[in-house]
Amino acid sequence: MLRPHTEVLTRGFDPTLSVGSARPAVFRSSTYVFSSPEAAERAFDLMAGRGTAEDDEQIDLVYSRFNHPNAEILEDQILPLETGAEAALAFNSGMAAIMTALFTFLKPGDSIVYTVPIYGGTQKLIENFLSTWGVTGVAVEAGQTARIDSAIRETKNLRVVLIETPANPTGLMTDIRRAADSAATLANKPLVMVDNTMLGPAFQHPFELGADLILYSATKYLSGFSDLIGGVILSKNRDLVTKMHAKRSLFGNILQPDECWMLNSRLPTVGLRMNRASKNAQRIAERLAPHPKIKKVLYPALFDDPEQLRIYKAQCDFPGAMFSLDLRGGKPAAFEFLRHLKIARNAVSLGGVETLVCHPKTTTHSGFTDEQFAQAGVTDGLVRVSIGIEDWRDLLADFEQALEAV
Ligand SMILES: *Cc1c(COP(=O)(O)O)cnc(C)c1O
Asked: Which atom of ligand 1 lies nearest, measured to the CA of 121?
């Protein structure tokens, strides 16, 4: 058995299928020439579920909305990065991945329990869209272990438990194993899905904790250069992927060949990038914590709540590269701080090799009600930081001079 960092470089790609090229070619074709009419018939039979493929059977490709070589290579190479993953699917955004997972496994009359705060798009999808299709959403505060348990036990027709941990922008953590254990006690076990965008695949491994599906915005750490939009779903169980694959073919939200190729080439470095960024973030967060102009630094390595510390230690290898600074002086202080940063750039998104900062209250979370702001811990002085792979000493100096100017 090869270890993940070796396997990600060696599996899934056969140079003889790319005229000997050491790296995969990009196959932009929209359609594929069948090797025989029989092979075409067989490919359509398999696609429609009229039969199952033999283990080493060569199946002709059909049409690039269903599948294409660059998606197949990506979906194979990404597996070693999540221990326990058996199959994966690539999508043209994180939201496309989340939407396809939910549409495949929820129908009118079903319920979904989900942690809040959750990514804004996911929240709108559940609360403003799925609700109008007869799906009941039950929101539970992130980190409230006992409340999540009771929501899982008490919600009628529960089909999906969706956990996003750590929560954005506060870093609040939810116990994945506990939620998966509660779900497993139900006669009709709901699927446990984890949006692992923030700490995966390097520092948090939801399949080891009992999750059924792992969802990613590949736009963030997986691709890592803030230059593509993509999403990935991984599963321990091939049948679940077959079901979502059928929906992806229908919706037409597969990731395009060029983007698959780019994302594929970023996978071998995701561990390196995340490790460097996490080390940087920890050094900077610890040094900023006592700064007189900062009320609090929200970061897993600086947690003081014992329950949060317990979850962090049990389910994460490292604290990651996201933290939030709660500045004294509210919005004016936060805006002055942003205005004076020279290296860190004021942009939403996260997980890139470059450091990005934003003011959640007026940007990513601006649609919240006052109650939601309070519940999510989004204050006027809060600045969210996604640390990159620059030299941490330059970043720290940049933060310090911007704080000086506040
Ligand atoms: C960005 C993000 C998404 C949405 O991904 P897109 O690629 O922008 O569609 C979903 N979940 C989390 C946690 C995210 O950070």
From this structure: 4
Average pLDDT over residues 279-292: 98
Which one of 216, 239, 269 terminates a domain? 269
The encoded tokens of residue 140 equal 């539970």
What does the alpha-carbon distance between residue 59 and residue 15 come to, in Å, rounded to a whole number? 18
Mean pLDDT of the chain: 96
Q: Look at residue 63 and tell me whether its pLDDT is greater than 90.
A: yes
Closest to 293 (Cα-Cα) out of 337, 335, 355, 338: 337
Residues 247 and 116: their CA atoms lie apart, in Å, by: 27
Per-residue model confidence (pLDDT) at position 49: 83
Position 231 confidence tier, pLDDT thresholds 50, 70, 90: very high
Same domain, 93 and 36: yes
Which tokens in the block code for residue 40? 């075409």
Domain that holds residue 171: 4-269
322 and 354 belong to one structural domain: yes
Number of domains the chain is built from: 2
Question: Collapsing DSSP states into helix, strand and coil, what is residue 101?
Answer: helix
The torsion angle over the Cα atoms of residues 21, 26, 31 and 35, rounded to 10 degrees, is 10
Q: Residue 33: which CATH number? A: 3.40.640.10
Answer for the pair 162, 112: CB distance below 8 angstroms, yes or no: yes
d(CA 117, ligand 1 centre) in Å: 13
**Whether 286 and 326 share a structural domain:** yes
Residues with CB under 6 Å of ligand 1 are: 93-95, 119, 121-122, 164, 195, 197-198, 217, 219-220, 229, 231
Note the pTM of the prediction, 2 decimals. 0.97
User: What is the whole-number distance in angstroms between the Cα of residue 100 and the centre of ligand 1?
Assistant: 14
Same domain, 156 and 21: yes
pLDDT tens-place string over residues 366-375: 988 999 898 8
- Residues 312, 224 share a domain: no
388: which DSSP letter? -
Checking if the pLDDT of 9 tops 90, the result is no
191 shares a domain with 234? yes
Looking at residue 60, its pLDDT comes to 95
CA distance 246 to 48: 8
User: Are 346 and 366 found together in one domain?
Assistant: yes
Provide the pLDDT for residue 101: 98
pLDDT at 47 > cutoff 90: no
Q: Are residues 102 and 213 in the same domain?
A: yes
